[in-house]
Structures are given as structure tokens and as C-alpha cells.
Amino acid sequence: MTRVAVLGAGPAGLAAAEAALAAGAQVTVLDEGARPGGQFWRHRPGLTDPRMQHGVRRFEQLQSALAGAVVHSGAAVWSVELREPGERGGAVVLRAAVGPADGARREAVVVEADALVIATGAHDLALPIPGWTLPGVTTAGAAQALAKRDGVSVGRRTLVAGAGPFLLPVAQSLALVGSTVVGVHEASRIGALAGGWLPKPWQLLGKSAELAQYAGALARHRIPYRIGSGVVRVLGDERVEGAVVAQLDADWRPRPGTERVIECDAVALGHGFTPRLEAAVMLGCEVTGDRRGRFVVVDDGQRTTQPRVFAAGEVTGIGGADAALAEGAIAGYRAAGLAQDDERLHAALRVRDRMRRFARRLETAHGIRPGWTAWLDDDTIICRCEAVAKRAIVERAEVPLRAMRLATRAGLGPCQARTCGRAVEAIVAEARVSATGVTAAGQAVDGSDSAAPGGGDLGFERRPLLAPVRLGELGGADRPTCGEN
Amino acid sequence: MSGARGATAAHGSSGAHGSSGAHGSVEILVEGETVAGRAGQTIAGVLLGSGRVAWRGAQQGERGVFCGIGVCHDCLVTVNGVEGVRACQREAVHGDRVEREVRG
Amino acid sequence: MRIAVIGAGVVGAACALELAERGAEVVLVDRVGIAAETSSRCEGNLLVSDKAPGPEADLAIHSNARWRALADRLDAERTGGQPETEFEAKGGVVVAFPGGEEALRRFAAAQRGIGIRAEELDAERLLAAEPHLSPEVALAIHYPDDAQLQPSNTTQALAAAAVRHGARLVVAEVTGSRAEAGRIAAIETTAGAIEVDAVVNCAGPWAGELGRRLGAPLDIRPRRGVILVTTPMPQRVFHKVYDADYVGAVGSGDAALQTSTVVESTPGGTVLIGSSRERVGFDEHPGVDPVRAIAAKATRLFPFLEETILLRSYFGFRPYAPDHLPVIGEDPRVGGLFHATGHEGAGIGLAPATAELVAHAVLGAPTSLDPVPFLPGRPGIGVAA
Ligand SMILES: Cc1cc2nc3c(=O)[nH]c(=O)nc-3n(C[C@H](O)[C@H](O)[C@H](O)COP(=O)(O)OP(=O)(O)OC[C@H]3O[C@@H](n4cnc5c(N)ncnc54)[C@H](O)[C@@H]3O)c2cc1C
Ligand SMILES: Cc1cc2nc3c(=O)[nH]c(=O)nc-3n(C[C@H](O)[C@H](O)[C@H](O)COP(=O)(O)OP(=O)(O)OC[C@H]3O[C@@H](n4cnc5c(N)ncnc54)[C@H](O)[C@@H]3O)c2cc1C
Ligand code: FES
């Protein structure tokens, strides 16, 4: 029987597990969350207002399908490796520490499988803003997660800002947990939105029902929605006391003279999402893209450039939960050995192709524009972990990325540049373009000058540990726990 | 084997399907002070629910939750003597001792 | 004299500074930039404690003394945005577990014979020096002269100092050379030809390949090493602390995975734990085995590390010659070509003395070091027939 491991139990991973089980595979699912559901399904009876949760029926279906799988929740997968065909045949080997999040002495679990589906999702991309380290500033996703999972909000008056339709459910959730939402500020302007969407994001067919519902919620809660507008500074002493918003031009450069102060005690920032690529990178799967986004390359059957490895969901492109579900199903069927033209794939293939168009429009409408760096001050902290200011990065922009990081400590802290990586790259690229002197060809700005000896690859994206693990947890029993029937 | 066939059990003492079921309350000790939260909340959720927005000393200023999903490591606390626990990821268990961390 | 120094790692940067200060017209050529490779993928241990008596120990002792003044000077001359060397003369503590005491005692006694300070610590002094060390440790020797610095920053500082003394940085790959009358007259690069009177090959683990391109192949090979980095924490490790089995691994030619534990804290609050030694070519997938092996040894040394979060690991390729000695001096086959490579796991520590030997070879500058043991003409490194 084909052994399929699924890394990540969000919509994509769950759909992959369901499909692989249906196709007769033996399935193991691992996720570091305390329970399956990923970023999308995190409702808790008693903690979550039911109006915040969509697709609960589908979730229940997926959960009952999991009855046929081995599920490791609370499983921080810190390593994935391909074992070359050898004495025991080729395989994918995953190592996890299983137990309460960041606990000490968690159980060591090793899973060995014939095929892997990477469904590690994405996290918020929040661009740095002067004052963004003040308590009370969170990502939009944090506001959403805290509302859904914990039933709390960080502040009483929250300003939501950034780009993309995700800001809408966040505003609604904040309102439902009792925070006043003083405004939703969408950086993109009418032109970009009209190119990608119709003039208002919720008017797009296909996502219309859900988005229209958010629009209704905004109206009901009297939440102002502004486009071509963004937070350019967060004010406060020990915590957020207000925010400066300004009109942004088509490149997201603040328009001088348009600044105004809005009183608030929390700011939720989300300028899009960035995929969690490290597992794919560790396995040597090809990743492509530019500074606007890098994603795992997959074929029509969601197979990566490593034959045993499939990828689905936000790691292959930001398209939302429906796209993740469809891609997950395709990946699960294919990983279990079904042919691409098997009729069981048809429905999922149709949905996926439609959702890919949706994703393209999303990027056209809301993709990050290069002018955002204009709202930074020289002393704005870019790397939150190591408190590295923009100035330090600019001053070292001329040396290779690896040397710049070591000199400034930007991206070297506990989050391993997950939060600041993209911003640091943008600042380095901008500084190199405007620099004179020693900058030369061969210093690519996408990190291709830095990570591998003698040549190019992914700079910040290369993280040899997928999740935090304690030194005492690395050893442990080295016994496969998959396929032991 | 720690995987639960046919179940989606959480592991260890966080026992999501165990004592801290969906309803009811938990009490944790934050710097020696008792703080009540709702069962199932993360430590970050309990801290925010009690009105705290920041609980870690960074190089400049205080930090609390930023990403909310375990990515940024802003929210670190010491739990029951173990350092470096992400408060936004760890479910609060009745009796947990939570202490501040300060980055030197 | 026009000199091309090829490779802007620690060795090339130190050579460029030394030569530029002595009035040469230096161009520093690197295909990626300053501190792009091994010198940003290593640790910054400046060790005398791991050297058995011999030519490399002489080089290390000399270099160790030079580093103190050099690091001070680099920090003092720092200009805007330049990082500090983070030089710390913190001393090393080498320990043996039960059964290893005799070997370590003998090793230290031999070192004392060549002037390396090595003092046995009694239990009380050891507890004061390293309170978190495992009580299992049977013997500890203190080496006050061991030091550390931040190698990438230091390389950047050396290169900047060289530039202040008139060196020019060219980011381009060296692809070949042009000779006239048996001497190198120019190097070919992806940014065009550069006319020179002398060339110094400081290409680290790629020095063999660069030598081939310049008509003088050299047997320099990569030896992969993995290092672990923990999350930042309050300081609990005060010296460079290592297990005496390190002494065995350094000189070994064995291809299989070997590890030895060196534990040190950094000014950033992280603890660095090195390292492994594997001969696997330029393979970039170290996998988990070295990580797990290093962690197991480190937690034996410092049990508190069991609960410490591992933040990341990284790896680099030590450039080594088959006889494990640096290769420094003029190539006997191609006039005007000099090598400065093969420093294996000690290139940071040995950089100042290496630069001194290069200045001696290229410009005839004085040195108190004996250059002979390091000359490229010796047998066994692919130069002599
Ligand atoms: C904070 C946040 C909140 C969001 N909320 C919503 C929302 O309310 N509504 C909405 O429509 N969209 C939301 N999104 C968008 C969401 O990402 C997608 O709609 C959808 O969840 C994508 O599904 P996925 O399966 O690709 O990834 P995800 O749902 O992100 O699932 C990925 C899973 O992989 C796991 N994982 C990753 N790495 C590892 C590892 N090394 N070890 C173990 N497990 C690992 C994660 O724990 C996670 O559960 C949110 C996104 C974020 C970041
Ligand atoms: C894991 C590990 C730990 C270590 N720990 C220590 C330690 O604690 N103390 C210590 O002293 N040493 C240590 N070392 C050893 C030390 O890192 C090396 O000896 C030293 O960095 C070598 O420096 P280098 O300048 O010779 O090489 P590199 O730093 O690799 O520089 C060589 C340069 O040459 C360039 N180059 C190559 N080919 C060409 C070409 N054709 N054209 C143009 N440019 C080219 C490359 O781009 C590169 O920048 C360690 C090494 C490793 C791997
Ligand atoms: S808030 Fe980011 S890790 Fe907890």
C-alpha cells in the first residue's frame, strides 16, 4: 500500500488526506497545531462566534474522513529528508517533536512515507512601518486568529490596514469580539482594483457570496472602508495610542499633505501572505518567483520537481481556502497513485483552474508595490527580533546578503527572517540600485548571491530547521511510526 | 506510537480533549498573580483577556502578540520553568506558571 | 607592483590589507563579494589550544598575538555602518570525560613545551569558570590565549581597511590568465582582463579549481562542517569550551562523519555549537545526522542545553590540503602566482600570519616565521611531481 505523509492539516492538507485515503493509501497527517484545521478552521465551541466560521460542514466531513488516518497533532515537524533509493527503497522521512507547543522533552516521532504532500500554508506579510513594534500592533492574521480561537481582541479601537480581501473578514471578526473597527485601509487604488476586480473587491463573482456578506458586516458595524490609503506611522509611548494614515499613490508612496491621525489602541496589518516554503526548499523542490512572491513549482497534478513530493494550498500560490481544498484533493489522489485523467480528479481540477484565475486577480489588484519603502524612517526597526533599523541594512547593502545579515543581525533572530525577510530584501535591492561605487553585477537581489557556496539560491528562504526544537529532542527513538502494519 | 488512529488527539498535558474541554475556565499564575481565562484559550489569549498587551522585554520596549500563529516569536514566555514558549501557540493548562522573559 | 588577490574571504582580505599597506597596488577580486563564503560560514575561534607542536602551531601562536592588535585597530578605524570584530580574549577550557584524562594531560604538557599556556583547573576553579558544565567532566585545562571574533564582520573590516589603503574591489569571477615569458601578465575575469605583476590565490575551498584555471592545479579539497545556533539566552557559557576529542578530529583524514563539540556564547546571546567534519565534496545537503550527533555531545558537556531551543544550523566547506597544512607561497610552476589557502578549520585564526608570509613571498617583507613548511612545492599536494 502506498504510504502518504501529509505535512500540514489546513484545508489543503486535510483534503489531501481525504483523497489519498479514498484512493486506498495509508495516510499519516502531521501538524504543529493542537488540532487540525490550519489557519482557516480554528473555531472552538464556546470561544468562537459561529458567524466567523465558514464551511463548518466541509470541515466535519474532512474530520470524519481522518478516522482512517494516523494524525499527529501538536507535531512540530523540524526536518524532512529524501532517502535515496537504497537498501530499503527510496522514501521521505519526517521528524517531529510531538507534544504541547514548545514543550520540553516532547516525543520524537519519525514518519517514513513513499510520497509527501507539503501543505504548510502561508503566514501574513506585514510590511514594516515606523512604530510597528509597539504593543497593540499585530498582523491581520493575528487579529483573526485571536478572535476566532481565543475570542479576544488586542484593543478596543482597532485600525485594520494593508491590502487584500482578507482585511474584510478580519474587520468583521474584530467587530464580533467587541472591538470597534475605526477603519479598513486598503493600500491599492481604484485603478489596480478595477484591473484585478470590479471596483469593490466583494463584487467578484465566485467569491461573491462570502465577500458580500463581509460588505454587509462592514455596513452593519459602520466600518469605514478606504482605498488607496494606508497606515504610515503608528503612534504611542508604551503601546498604541493612534496611527497616522495617508493616501497612497499607485506605487503605495504616501502622498504628502494627506496625513491624518486616527485615535486607536490597536492596529492590524496585513499586506498579503507569504508561503511557508522551508520544507519544500529543504527537499530541493524548485521554487520560483520574484520579489513579489516565491512559490513551490508544481505540475498539473500538484507534483513538485521532486517526484515523491507534492505541494498544495498556499505554498503554491495565494488563492484562499477553496483553492487549497481543490489542490489538496488533486495532490492527495496523485500521491496515492491515481492517474491525472482519473475521473475522481475532474471536479477538483475544474475548481482549481477557476481559483488560479482568482489568485491572479488577487495579485494584480493587491500585490505589494515598491513605493512602500517611502514610509520608512532611517531608524524604523525592520528586523523585529534583533531590533535592526533600516539605516543599518542600507549601510551594509553592498556586501553579499549573507555577510550583511551577519554584520547587522537582520534576519538572524528567533523568527529566522520569516517576518522581515521580504522587507530586508526590498531595502537591500533599493539601496543597491541607488548606490554608487562597489556594487557590481553578480550581486542579485533575491538572495541568489548568498545562500549556497559558489552560487545562487534562496537566501532567507533556506531554513535548515523547519520548526523550533530543543537540543534534547533531536535524538530520541529513531523508529518509523508509519507503515508498521 | 503517539499518533492516534481515528482520533485527532492533542498530545501531552495540553489535552485539548481532556480536562480543559471546550467550556469552563482555567487559572494560570502570571508572575505569581492568578489570572483566569477560558478553557481552550492559548496563554496569549488568557493574557490579552486579562488586559495585558505586552509581556516580554525586547531590546527596545515591550512586546506581546504580533503574528498570533507562531511565526514571529515576539510572544515568548517561560512556562513552568521552560524558556522560550510561544504564548500564542501554547494552550493554557490550569495551574501553568507563566513568567516574563527579557532579551538582554 | 600590481597584485591581484583572488578571493575576498578572511585570507584574501587580510592579504589585501597587508600588501596594500606595504604600498602595492592591490585589486581584490571575488565572484560574489566580500565575505560571501567560508569566512561567513564558520566560527571565529582563534585557537592555540588545539594545536600540537609543529609548524601550524608556530603559525597559530604568531597569528594569535597579531590578532589582538589587529582587531583593536580594525575596531578603532571603523567608519559608518561597519560592524565590530567582536574580538574577545575569553580563553578556552578543554575538558576530558573519564578515560580521556591522560591523553589530554600529555597533549597539554607537549604544548607547554612550545610556550602555549595551559593550566589544569581544580574542581573549585572549574566550577567558578564554568558553573553549568557537566559534573561528569574529569579534567579541565584552561588556555588563556584562546580568543574569538566574529569572522564575517572581521573579514568585512579587513576588506574595508584594505580599500582605505587604496585596494580596489572587483566583483567578478576569475576564469583564466595570460602569461608572458612564463610569468602571469594578466588575469581574465567575467568583468574583463586585469593586468598584473603578481596573483595571490585565496580562493579557499575553490583554490584547487582556481589554480587549474591559472595553469597551476593544486590539491585543495572541501571538508564540510555543520554548526548549530541556539536561541539567544542569558549567558551560561563563559569560555570556549570543548571536548578533548576535538584534538583527534582536526588532524584526521577520515572521510566519515566526525563530530567534536565546541561550545561558545556570542555577544548576540546565542550559543554556537560546532562542529562536524565530513569529506563529501561540495554536497549541500548535510541532513540531520551531523545536527543530531553534535547536539548529543553538546548536551553531555552542558546538560542545560537539553532544554535549549535550536534556532538554526549552517554549514561551510573547510579548504584542506591532504597533509593538513596550509599552502602559502609562490607556485614553482607559474611565475608570479602565489597561493594562500588550505587553512582547513583554522583560516580565521591563521589569517594575519598568512598575510605576513604572503607579503614576505611577494614583496620580500621581513618575517620571523619559517615559510618553508608551507611552500606549495612540497610533495603530496598536487604541485610537485
Ligand atoms: C493567521 C491567518 C489567519 C487566516 N484566517 C483566515 C480566515 O479566517 N479565513 C480565510 O478565508 N482565510 C484565512 N487565512 C488564509 C488561509 O491561509 C487560507 O485561506 C487557508 O487556510 C490556506 O490553507 P492551507 O491548507 O494552504 O494552509 P494553512 O491553513 O495555513 O495550513 C497549513 C498548516 O501547516 C502547518 N505547518 C506548517 N509548517 C509546519 C511544520 N513545520 N510542522 C508542522 N505543521 C506545520 C500549520 O500548523 C498549518 O496548520 C488566514 C491566514 C493566516 C496566516
Ligand atoms: C564549520 C566551520 C567552522 C570553522 N571554524 C573555524 C574557527 O573556529 N576558527 C578558524 O580559524 N577557522 C574556522 N573555520 C575555517 C575557516 O572558516 C576557513 O579556513 C576560512 O574561512 C577560509 O577563508 P578563505 O578566505 O580561504 O576562503 P573563503 O572565505 O571561502 O573565501 C574564498 C573566496 O574566493 C572566492 N572565489 C572562489 N573562486 C573564485 C574565482 N574563480 N573567482 C573569483 N573569486 C573566487 C569565493 O567567492 C570566496 O569568497 C571553520 C570552517 C568551517 C566550515
Ligand atoms: S505572536 Fe508571533 S509567535 Fe506568538
TrEMBL record, chain A:
The domain of life for this entry's organism is Bacteria
Q: Which Pfam families match?
A: Pyr_redox_2
PANTHER family given in the database record: ANAEROBIC GLYCEROL-3-PHOSPHATE DEHYDROGENASE SUBUNIT B
Q: What are the residue boundaries of the FAD/NAD(P)-binding domain, all occurrences included? A: 3-328
**What InterPro entries does this protein map onto?**
BFD-like_2Fe2S-bd_dom_sf, FAD/NAD-bd_sf, FAD/NAD-binding_dom, Metab_Enz_Cyan_OpOx_G3PDH, Opine_Oxase_asu/HCN_bsu
Annotated protein name in UniProt: FAD-dependent oxidoreductase
Keyword terms of this UniProt record: Oxidoreductase, Signal
**Residues spanning the signal sequence:** 1-22
From TrEMBL, chain B:
Arranged from A to Z, the UniProt key words for this protein are: Oxidoreductase
Q: Where is this region: Disordered?
A: 1-23
InterPro entries, per database record: 2Fe-2S-bd_N, 2Fe-2S_ferredoxin-like_sf
- Source domain of life: Bacteria
Which residues are in coiled coils?
A: none
Which protein is depicted? 2Fe-2S iron-sulfur cluster-binding protein
Q: Which organism is it from?
A: Agromyces lapidis
UniProtKB/TrEMBL annotation, chain C:
Question: InterPro entries annotated for this entry?
Answer: FAD-dep_OxRdtase, FAD/NAD-bd_sf
* Keywords carried by this UniProt record: Oxidoreductase
The FAD dependent oxidoreductase domain covers which part of the protein? Answer: 2-360
Gene Ontology molecular-function annotations? oxidoreductase activity
Signal peptide annotation = none
Which E.C. number(s) belong to this protein?
A: 1.-.-.-
Pfam families found in the cross-reference section = DAO
Claim: Oxidoreductase is one of the keywords in the record: yes
Q: Does the keyword Oxidoreductase belong to this entry?
A: yes
EC category name:
oxidoreductase
Q: What PANTHER family would the database entry show?
A: FAD-DEPENDENT OXIDOREDUCTASE DOMAIN-CONTAINING PROTEIN 1, SARCOSINE DEHYDROGENASE-RELATED
Q: Which protein are we looking at?
A: NAD(P)/FAD-dependent oxidoreductase
